[in-house]
Amino acid sequence: MTSLSETPTGSTQSSGTAVDRVFNVLREGILTSRFASGQRLVEVDLTRELGVSRGSLREAFRRLSAEGLIEIVPNRGALVRRLSFRETIELFEIRTELEGLAARLAARKISDAGLRKAFEDAIAPIWSDEPRLSSAAYIDENARFHRAIIELSGNTQLDIVSRQLQLPLILSQTSQALTLDSLNQSVIEHREIAEQILAGNSRDADAAIRRHLSRAEDLIRKMPAAFFRT
Length: 230
What we know:
Blueprint: H1 12-31, E1 40-41, H2 43-50, H3 54-66, E2 70-73, E3 77-80, H4 85-109, H5 113-122, H6 135-153, H7 156-163, H8 167-174, H9 180-198, H10 202-221
Helix pairs in contact: 1-3, 4-6, 4-9, 4-10, 5-6, 6-9, 9-10
Protein name: GntR family transcriptional regulator
InterPro entries: GntR_C, TF_FadR/GntR_C, Tscrpt_reg_HTH_GntR, WH-like_DNA-bd_sf, WH_DNA-bd_sf
GO molecular function, one term: DNA-binding transcription factor activity
C-alpha cells in the first residue's frame, strides 16, 4: 500500500485529510478485491502500512461501515462485509427495477444538449475495442456506466436509493466468477443500452438494461455457495 503521512500535531485539518486518504485507499482495496469479502482489517498492520494514527483509521472504518462496505464486530474488529446469497439476489432484483426506470428517464432527457454531452463523456470507455483483461478494470468501467445513467435520469431520490444497494460490494464479492467472455459480453450489452438511450428510445432502453441485469443475476445464481455468507 502507498504510505500516507499524518502530521504528529493531530490538527483537525491534517487529521481530516489523513482520514480521507485512508478511507479512499481502503475503499478502493475493497472494491478491487485487494481485501477479500470476510477479511479482517487488522488495525496494527494498517496503521503501520498507511502511516496514520489509530484514531484516523477508526474514523475511516466508521465511514466504510456507513457505506455498508465493512462490519464492525465486537471482539473481532473490522471485517470486509460479505453478503449472503439471498441478500445479493434481493438487492439485484431491486436494482433491476430501479435501473429500468433510470434508463427510461435518461432516454427522455437525452435531447438536452448539455446532458447528452455529459453522458457521452462519462460512458466513453465502453466504445473502446481493447479487450477487458481483468475484473478490476471492468468493475470501474461498469460502475461509471451505470452511474452515468442514473445521473442522466435526473431523479434525486432514485440516486439516493441506488447508493444504498451496496452494488460496488456485490461486484467486488462476485468478481472472481467473471470470465473474460462474460466481461466482454457485458461491454456489448452496455453499448446496446447506450445506443437506445442516445436514440431517445425509453422503452427499448428499459428492456436492454433489464436483459443485461438478468444475465448478470443468472451468473450470480450459478456461483458456488462458498462465495456468500452463510
